[in-house]
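Let's practice the habit of predicting before peeking. Look at the sequence and jot down your guess about where helices and strands might fall. Then scroll down.
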Amino acid sequence: NKVGIIDEVYPKPILYTDSVPTDSVSVPQPIYRVRFATRDLWANIPDTGDILYNDCFETYLAAA
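Done guessing? Here is the structure:
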């Protein structure tokens, strides 16, 4: 439930296998590099302007 900015969409989808039953087929999903201000993730740390980048499968994202 944090807001980030999509910095890049990787060109090739990757097989997503988290929480998929072993008898199910994995589905390729787009991967996004999302940029977060560390202060937005952890409010109790000093605001030093640090940035955290995280690669996320599309299934983990929701429009803000």
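How did you do? The chain has one helix and five strands.
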